[in-house]
Design brief:
419 residues, Immunoglobulin-like, 13-stranded mixed sheet, four-stranded antiparallel sheet
């Protein structure tokens, strides 16, 4: 079921599927995605046209090794100082053969340049969007993964050896965005378990990371999963820690700069058109921007003490006719990947089910809205001794509606069941 234009971007997200209207913002934007991707020349022509809008300024960040312009589009309400807004940096097409992110960004820019929608205009009063539609112009022109110097840009974020990554790092230092999104595509066929479906990868929980960072990425990934579920889009979410490879873009910003960052991977193949893949990114951009606009706000000064107003608690929602049920199954060795264990859950989804999380000792390690409900976990993430695994099911408002736990212990032989 599609959600209404108003429901997607209102200040407090409305989760009830009955909130419908005649127009749908995601479909409006996705309708602007072409059947075939824009070339580099067509992208630059479109950006020059969009630059005529009072809401968009397209500028050059520098040139690639082959002399192509790396472009940035700044989208905002010209009547509001960007200093008074949150800022979202969106990076598309680091890999030149992954066009869906570029098309999602260009469609969003075209929509925001001309819309008179109340929700979109309200968003732009609160959020400045910094969009890099084509981070790898040389690779895009050749329709190949690497840049003109033969470097995989998404493995260059420690060395920062390339003009493309250096240009994007300068954008970060100049604007200090409040969140970063990196848009990619997955191959149609892969042996990797995590590459079988759309996924988001973001920052998890660790003692060396700010609690506010992990809290924000946890909240946003849950919102993303719930909205993807409303649109019938399957999704898994994975969480990074400081031990992970920092050469990747989203980890560079999330773990090094410690700003909320999100890697979006759309699955190709199986009849998924360019529009289908771009729609996944479009919905993700709207959810992250909405969270910045209405949920992730700067702290306010503490008010003077006042006598509290006592209000009656809101009535609890009626129980669903078909409640969600979940059971944590015994973990088993992942036969396809050495050194990993499969966390598994048996779920009977009720009418209120939106997504579930797997937890290890109280920390979320994966989130999914898609069966089969399992996650391949590195055993090295566990310390030897007693561990507690948990699975929790949530409705679209983020309320836990069912859970189960299992005690396990780790020894030299791996994970074994405990009491």
């Amino acid at each position: 079921m599609k959600l209404s234009r108003f429901a997607v971007l209102v200040g407090v997200l409305l989760w009830a599927p009955a909130v419908l209207a005649r127009a749908d913002i995601v479909e409006d934007i996705a309708s602007l995605v072409p059947a075939d991707p824009h070339s580099y020349a067509e992208t630059m022509t479109l950006l020059r046209q969009l630059n005529q809008s009072e809401r968009i300024r397209a500028v050059s960040l520098g040139n690639t090794s082959k002399g192509r312009t790396i472009a940035l589009a700044v989208v905002r309400d010209p009547r509001v100082s960007y200093r008074n807004t949150r800022k979202l940096l969106i990076i598309a097409r680091q890999h030149g053969n992954e066009p869906a992110g570029t098309e999602a960004v260009l469609a969003l820019l075209r929509h925001l340049a001309r819309t008179q929608g109340r929700a979109e205009l309200g968003l732009l009063k609160r959020v400045t969007i910094l969009a890099i539609p084509m981070a790898n112009p040389d690779g895009a022109s050749a329709m190949c993964r690497r840049n003109g110097a033969g470097v995989d840009l998404n493995r260059d974020w420690v060395a920062l050896s390339q003009p493309e990554t250096q240009a994007i790092e300068r954008v970060y230092e100049r604007w200090l965005p409040d969140a970063v999104m990196d848009l990619h595509e997955l191959p149609s066929a892969s042996k990797k378990a995590s590459y079988q479906e759309n996924f988001v990868e973001t920052i998890g929980t660790a003692a060396t990371l700010p609690a506010s960072l992990s809290r924000t990425t946890g909240e946003v990934s849950a919102r993303i999963s719930a909205w993807m579920g409303h649109y019938g889009i399957p999704l898994h979410c994975y969480y990074d820690t400081p031990d992970d490879d920092l050469r990747l873009c989203h980890r560079h910003f999330g773990l090094y700069h410690q700003v909320p960052s999100y890697l979006f991977e759309s699955k190709t193949g199986r009849g998924r058109s360019l529009r289908d893949r771009a729609e996944y990114h479009i919905l993700g951009m709207l959810v992250v921007a909405n969270h910045l606009a209405y949920h992730e706000v700067a702290p306010k000064p503490l008010p003077l003490p006042v006598t509290p107003t006592v209000t009656a608690p809101a009535p609890a929602p009626p129980p669903p006719a078909k409640p969600t049920k979940v059971r944590m199954l015994e973990p088993v060795a992942d036969e396809a990947r050495e050194g990993r264990a499969l966390l598994r859950a048996e779920v009977t989804p009720g009418e209120d089910f939106a997504y579930l999380t797997f937890e290890l000792n109280g920390a979320v390690v994966a989130l999914t809205n898609q069966a089969p409900y399992q996650y391949s976990m590195e055993i090295s993430r566990c310390q030897e001794g007693a561990q507690e695994l948990a699975v929790r099911c949530y409705d679209a408002s983020g309320r836990c509606i069912a859970y189960d736990t299992r005690a396990v212990r780790l020894d030299n032989a791996g994970l074994v069941m405990g009491e």
